[in-house]
Amino acid sequence: MAVVLQVTCDPVDVGFDAARLRRIDRHFAAYVDDGRLPGWLVLVSRRGEIAHLSAYGARDLAFGAPVEHDTLFRIYSMTKPITSVAIMMLYEEGLLELTDPVSRFIPSFAEMRVYEKGPATKPVTRPALEPVRIWHLLTHTAGLAYAFQNVHVVDQMYRRAGFGNGLPPDLDLAEIVDRWAALPLLFEPGTQWNYSVATDVLGRVVEAASGLPLDRFLAERIFTPLGMTDTAFSIEPADAARLAALYNADQRGRPVPVDVGDAALRPPKAPSGGGGLISTAADYHRFTQMLLRGGELDGVRLLGPRTVAYMTRNHLPGGADLDQFGRPVFAEVSYAGVGFGLGFAVVEDPVRFRGLASRGEYNWGGAASTAFWVDPAEEITVVFLTQLLPSSTHPIRSQLRQLVYQALVD
């Protein structure tokens, strides 16, 4: 049975001004009313209590179906923190080390090469001096790429290899990861940050280290124990009406329907640990509460508190931020003052970040403009769900942050 989602406290009891919280609703209702978003849901909690919960607009514009508290959303890269938690569960069991070469689990990673120059059709490469390690994958410092970024020759090589539209549906995860291993790295592992397919590779590591397919591991070890009953790589036909329609932004930033057919009803041959999950606000809220509580929720412990604290520290060399250490990629929020941990962006310097935030806040978002963050200092978690591609279309995440923190008055 799905978790019933509802406000669980008077906002004032956890330090929020209720009238100021309603500014969130007015602000994002305008996004729907003037046609910038189809619909959305936002959840704000503090100290384990849901202080604000609202939904507005349509989950499907064609049918006028509203966003409801149990609406299913494609969370895309909000899958990555979940896969990273799975890896760290295996780490805690002694089944892998962060310094392990990935080739221990995926032999095709044994002899990686680094791009030096030349076109995608005839690149000049050299042997990598450093093996790709587990911590490189967790921090996106492995030198892997994403086809959709389209800023480097290696990105073009990913598209030429068949990854321009996500994961090829006819290949399993092992085959896909082996194809990535055959492509050159953008840089020597550990020397730069580049957003990439690294977390999908981690999904294959989960399979190799645990002996379970990724979807089974996540279901049996994370979703079922946490009561995340609506989170999976596909949905049942009976739940199809709850799934929000997917939209692309046109040149004016207005939603245009994406025809994805019945893809969500079919379990994928290769589950994407980097971006394949479908979930609800209730389920992802439970995931964020587990993190906020140091790896435990309702008597179920997935991780030790020291592991969560370690994951959510900045792991970039020398304490660098993404603005200094990362390759330039599209982003709807500032990378200044933001480091990267083991599966999460981490706010290191709110002043450089140029936005209201606490030092130590960790977060990430999804391609369809979804977002979440966990603020341990203020004991706040926030989940925002919608379905508009790409996430850089509107400044939703920065505006949401300022609207949440201006309502905090204790």
Walk me through what this model shows.
InterPro entries: Beta-lactam-related, Beta-lactam/transpept-like, Diverse_Enzym_Activities. This is CubicO group peptidase (Beta-lactamase class C family). Residues 24-403 form the Beta-lactamase-related domain. The protein has 410 residues and is α+β, with helices and mostly antiparallel strands. It folds into two domains: 11-79 and 243-265 and 280-405, Beta-lactamase (3-Layer(aba) Sandwich), CATH 3.40.710; 86-210, DD-peptidase/beta-lactamase superfamily (Beta-lactamase), CATH 3.40.710. Helices cover 29% and strands 17% of the residues. The chain has twelve helices and 17 strands. Strands 3-2-1-16-15-14-13-12 form an eight-stranded antiparallel beta sheet, sandwiched between helices. A hairpin with a 6-residue loop joins strand 5 (113-117) and strand 6. Helix 1 packs antiparallel against helix 12 and helix 2 runs parallel beside helix 6 (198-210). It is globular. The mean pLDDT is 96.
